[in-house]
Design a protein that fits this description.
It comes from Amycolatopsis rhabdoformis. By secondary structure, the chain is α/β, with parallel strands linked by helices. Helix content is 26%, strand content 33%. The strands form two sheets. Strands 5-4-3-6-7-11-10 form a seven-stranded mixed beta sheet, with helices on both faces. Strand 4, helix 5 and strand 5 form a beta-alpha-beta unit. It is globular, with a radius of gyration of 16 Å. The two termini are 26 Å apart. The N terminus is likely disordered.
């Protein structure tokens, strides 16, 4: 999917190595590698507790959420462009598919929930386009559960690349603050049902408008 990169830098991050996004202006955004590779925390339970039916975990990474849902008896499918991510998810005993979210996916229109955790609302650099795609994947009464930036961050789009290692290609990424999600959601045919926080992490549930 239009995520980080399927190159070796992202794969190393999935395996626990420190990595970050470099912005065109030279700024650096560290990636939460420890959270990707460890067990679920209190923030993750916000997402997990909201899933009571078939769930797509978009950009599943090494599969902590996909596997946690499976342990709860919830049908869950992890989707990621990285073969390493898919393999790690499967090693946790969960089901995962190597696929771009904009490509055809199993069960389109029949998923109850779609997860965008760990900043995956930024996939492709266009949150409206991404949410519009998820609109096609969920049921008429389904929802999107999304992790956001803290209030005050607004909507930000940047060209980024993944480091360390060899300089990879630049690609689009986005960040959406809790204060900006209502506008983004509306443009994609959703409305915000609730927002909440756990520690420094912010979340929202989006339902069809």
């Amino acid at each position: 999917m239009r995520k980080l990169s399927t190159g070796t830098e992202f794969d190393r991050g999935l395996l626990g190595q420190h990595c970050w996004l470099e912005l065109a202006n030279g700024d650096r955004v560290d990636l939460p590698v420890d959270r990707w590779t460890e067990g679920c925390d209190l923030g993750d339970t916000v997402l997990l507790d909201a899933c009571d039916g078939p769930t797509l975990d978009i950009g599943c990474g090494p599969g902590r959420l996909t596997a946690a849902l499976a342990r709860r008896g919830v049908v869950a499918l992890g989707v990621d462009s990285s073969p390493t991510a898919v393999r790690l998810t499967q090693e946790r005993g969960a089901v995962a598919l190597r696929r771009d979210v904009f490509q055809p996916l199993p069960g389109e229109g029949r998923w109850h929930h779609a997860l965008l955790a760990d900043g995956n609302i930024g996939i492709g650099g266009d949150p409206v386009e991404l949410l519009s795609r998820l609109h096609e994947l969920i049921t008429f009464d389904g929802d999107v559960l999304v992790e956001l930036e803290a209030p005050g961050q607004g909507l930000r789009r940047e060209a980024v690349r993944l480091l360390p290692g060899r300089s990879g290609p630049w690609f689009g990424w986005a960040w959406v603050g809790a204060d900006a999600i209502a506008e983004v959601a509306m443009r994609a045919g959703f409305r915000v049902d609730w927002t909440t926080s756990r520690g420094h992490r912010w979340f929202a549930r989006l339902e069809r408008a």
